[in-house]
Every structure is written in structure tokens, then in C-alpha cells.
Amino acid sequence: MLNAWEAQGGDPQRDARTNVVVVGGGFSGTLFALAAAAARLDVVLVEREAKAGPGLAYGACDPRHLLNVPVARMEVGLKPSFAQWLKASGADLSAAIEEAGGDLARAFVPRALFGAYLAERLETALAARNGRLRRVRGEVVRVSDRPVPSVTLSDGRRIEGTHVVLATGNLPPRPPRTRDGGVYDSPLFVPDPWRWQDIDTLSPDAPVLLIGSGLTMVDVALMLEARGHRGPIWSVSRHGLVPHVHADVAGRLGGVEPFLDPAEARDPIRALRLIRGAVRQAAVRGVPWQRVMDAARPALAAVWAGWPQKARERFLRHGRTWWDIHRHRMAPRIADAFGALVQSGQLTVIAGRIASLDLVPGGVAATLRRRHSGRALSLEVARVVNCTGPRSDFAGLAVPPFDGLRETGRIRPDPLGLGLETRGTALLDRYGHASTWLHALGPLSRPAFWEVTAVPEIAVQVHQLVEELARPASRRQRPDARLIAEFVDLGEGI
Ligand SMILES: Cc1cc2nc3c(=O)[nH]c(=O)nc-3n(C[C@H](O)[C@H](O)[C@H](O)COP(=O)(O)OP(=O)(O)OC[C@H]3O[C@@H](n4cnc5c(N)ncnc54)[C@H](O)[C@@H]3O)c2cc1C
Fold first, then answer.
1. Domain 183-242+342-386: which CATH class?
2. Which of 111, 258, 304, 411 shows the smallest number of beta carbons within 10 Å?
């Protein structure tokens, strides 16, 4: 058995120290590990991939894939800053800087660079922390508090701590519920769009069906194009709506003050009406709607927290698609490249649903039903790629360590299928009690915050948890909704 105390020579004087085991070394886990070690906590960061730091978002990408936000929005308080690091990196950023009018802070740079930045920060900290921060490569399959908080890896190693932080991020998408005729079990179905080896063997002229029309679909379409794909690409989603493009990003919130009072935005209809009203007012002053969306963002967690479950359900059913395409936007160069694919006729986006999939000699026969007319469209494709976005419903998930945590009642999936229930970052058990030792960061904790999937919000969450754990145990606060209020205030500052 390993533990952080043993790693430091088993000094019994240190046994009262806070000793955190972090599961997942993507952005959330890595930033937490860096910030916690800087606050003199002992941290073991467990990541199953060879490299810790980039995670899925900034690891599974090629140079063509850009960050969805400009450099300034990816700053998370590390030294050197991302912008300083980029300048010193020698990376060719000319196209990005030119597009941003010469200002690196406003540039959309490749995602992989942010991953490399995080990995390098981690390596530097690992070298400097003299054992206070350790990295373990392995897959966590069990998390328990009996007799003390610990994680068990798939190879049987066990690591103890005083706290466990789950930062396992984005799960692969769930296959759509449709009659799939064995397609889901065949090599012609790509269940996880980030496993490119399944796409790499594709003939360049073969037709491809992408399920979904969000940013993941855009990524996969551009990745196919970058690999010289010439065949037709079909994308199908219920509404057939693709993400909007960012406006020119001059200044942080450029001309719109943060707004959206939770008391006024007390249901989804009112909230969307307030946002639309602010968009109209901004337009009069020549301010693009994108800025209004960004200015609404700091208040979103508090607005969401104020909605009862029925209101949240209504928002997810009727407002989510609208929200997603306005909120999760494409970088301008990505939008240009994607637009060119559509203009050329190579890529077609269809509003509708998949009625059936069947295996036929050499491919997959897909029958789609168009949204309004209900007319059928029959396609024959060589691959079907699931681009429906990360899965978030933990209720039926048979993936360790979540299955064990659910069975022992240590976690409680939310009824809307967004993630795990938390109070602040403390996970709730099956009875709704906030854990004193088990925490969640990032996309897992979405039910309490709604918008906690992107870097600025996760950074706020990370710093709050570090601050809390860095206090002596006797002065720690009971987890409560206070964190949500602070989330809003701090959100404006990042
Ligand atoms: C493709 C994509 C692009 C994005 N682009 C942006 C962007 O430009 N800007 C922005 O602000 N946000 C972006 N996001 C949002 C993104 O979710 C967050 O920014 C953030 O990266 C989430 O990090 P994470 O560490 O929580 O999750 P992940 O990146 O998913 O990392 C989780 C890590 O945990 C590891 N792990 C999982 N289970 C285990 C286990 N059992 N044992 C050990 N290790 C485990 C995984 O291997 C992985 O490395 C993007 C998201 C995606 C999916």
C-alpha cells in the first residue's frame, strides 16, 4: 500500500496533515493538484493515461483543433501565464494572432498547446515539491472510506488519504437509443469520437454519418478534412442546429456589465427573456450578442440553483439546444473551415432522428426521419461516429469507481442525468448528506452549478476547495450553498 506519508519517509509528525488523493489528471485534477501543493497540502494525483495534464479536452486533439475561447479566458492564475508561456514556446501562432488583430490575449490557439502548458506546469511542480506532490499512473477502480479514505487501482495498489477528489471529467458519449441492427457491436460504429484509430482506417472517399451537430461533430468533421477525407459527411441531430461563432473579442466583457439577477430570472422563461432583452439593448449600442451571453455567465450558477427541479427539466427540454449553440461557440477560423465544408456540399447537417441502423455488405444502412416533414432519408455509410457529447448520467453507469460508490451509497446521481449531486464540492451520499472526505470537481458536479464544464468556472471551484482544505480541520466550514454564491462573485474575476 502506498500513501503520501510513506512517500515522504513516513514522518509520524505529519500524520495530522491533510492528504488528498486526486482521481483524474485532466485540467480539473491537475489545477487542483498544483494549487493544493502550493498551499502546502500533500497530494497524490492519479491519472490512467501516460501523460497527466491535458486530459481529454486538451489531449485528444490535433493542431487543427482550437480552444473554444481566446487565450485570456484560459488564464487560471499559474506562473508563467498561458500567454507568457505561449510567447516563449516558439509555437507558430501567426494565423491566430493575425486573426486577433495582433493581440495574443484575444487569439484562438490550438487546444493541444493548453494541454502542453498544463503538463509542463505539472512536471515543474513535481520536480520542485520534494514529495509533497506525487503523480501515480493507474486507473482507480474503487474508492472507499473504510477504514480510512482510500482509492484502489486496477493493479491492486491502494492509496490512502484524508480526502479523495474525483476529477474524472468527461465520460464517452452514450449511443443513441435506436434500432441499431448490430451496428453498435460492429467495427463500423465509433462509440467514442476521440478514439481516432477507428476513423483512421477509413477510405478517403467513404461516406460517414456523424450523430450530433455540436462542437464534437465540428471537431470530427474538421479532423476528417485535415486527413484528406473527400467523401460525403452527414451530421444528424434533433434540431440540426450547429454552434454559433464567437464575435471579435475586444476586452473581457466589452461593453456589457455582468447581469442576470437570480431573483428576477427565477424560471427559465424569465431568464431567457432577460437575456434576449439584454441582447436587444446591446445591439442598439452595436455590442454583439456573444458579449451578452458571456456577461450572463457569472450569475448562472446562482440562477440555476434557484430553480426547482421542474424548472430545470423545462429548461433542459426546451432551452438546452438554444443555450448550447449560443454558449459553446466556434472560434472564427473553425467556423470558416466548417462553413467551407458545408458550402462545398461535402458536409450536410440534417434536422431529424435516426429511425434505424442496419449492417449491409460493406457498410451501414441508416434511415433518418427529417424533423418537420417526417420524410425518410436513406443513406449508406462506411462509419457511424457518435458525436453526441460526453455522457453525464451516472444512474445506470457500470463504470468503476462509480458503480461501487453508488452501490455503497456514497454518491447520489441527480435525477436529471447531469452528473453527481454535491453541496459545494462535497458529494452527497444516498441520503443527501454532504461528505466530509469525498469531493467532485468539474463536469461531474454539474447538477449543482449547470455551467461548470469550462476552464473559468472549474478554476473557481478548484481554488475554493483548496482554500477549504488548507484550513485546519477544526476551522473548516460545513459544506453548504455558500460555495455557489462565491462561485458567482469569483467568476467575474477570472
Ligand atoms: C473536446 C473538448 C474541448 C473543450 N474545449 C474547451 C475550451 O476550449 N475551453 C474551455 O474552457 N473548456 C473546454 N472544454 C471543457 C472541458 O470539459 C474543461 O475545460 C476541462 O478540460 C475538463 O477537465 P477535467 O479534468 O474535468 O476532465 P477531462 O479532460 O475529461 O479529464 C479527466 C481525466 O481523468 C482521467 N480519469 C478518468 N477516470 C479515471 C480513473 N478511474 N482513474 C484514473 N484516471 C481517470 C482521464 O484519463 C482524464 O485524463 C472542452 C471539453 C471537451 C470535451
1. alpha beta
2. 258
Q: At what angle do helices 27-38 and 111-128 cross, to 10 degrees?
A: 30
412 Cα: distance to centroid of ligand 1 (angstroms): 21
Burial class (CB in 10 A: 0-12, 13-18, 19+), 285: exposed
> Separation of 453 CA from ligand 1 center, angstroms?
9
Ligand 1 within 6 A of CB of 47 = yes
Instruction: List, for residues 300-340, the tens digit of each pLDDT value.
Output: 888 998 999 999 999 999 999 999 999 889 989 999 999 99
> How many Å apart are CA 208 and CA 220, to the nearest integer?
11
- DSSP helix/strand/coil, 17: coil
Taking every pair of C-alpha atoms in the chain, what is the biggest distance, in angstroms?
A: 73
Residue 358 has which C-alpha cell?
A: 442496419
**Strand 150-153, strand 158-160: pairing:** antiparallel
Question: What would the grid cell of residue 190 be?
Answer: 465509433
Question: Topology of domain 2-65+110-171+392-493, per CATH?
Answer: FAD/NAD(P)-binding domain (3.50.50)
Q: What is the pLDDT of residue 293?
A: 87
Two domains, one topology: 2-65+110-171+392-493 and 183-242+342-386: yes
Say yes or no: CB of residue 99 within 6 Å of ligand 1: no
Domains of the chain by residue range: 2-65+110-171+392-493, 183-242+342-386, 268-327
- Binding site membership of 173 for ligand 1 (Cβ less than 6 Å): no
Ligand 1 centroid to Cα of residue 216, in Å, is: 13
Q: Is the CB of 234 under 6 A from ligand 1?
A: no
- Inter-residue contact 454 to 424 (CB < 8 Å): no
Residue of minimum CA distance from atom 23 in ligand 1? 27
Q: Decide if 311 contacts 268 (C-beta within 8 A).
A: yes
Q: Is the CB of 332 under 6 A from ligand 1?
A: no
User: pLDDT digit string (tens) for 122-170?
Assistant: 999 999 866 789 999 999 999 999 999 999 999 999 999 999 999 999 8
Nearest CA to ligand 1 atom 41: 140
Distance 18 CA to ligand 1 centre (A): 25
Tens-digit pLDDT profile for residues 25-47 = 999 999 999 999 999 999 999 99
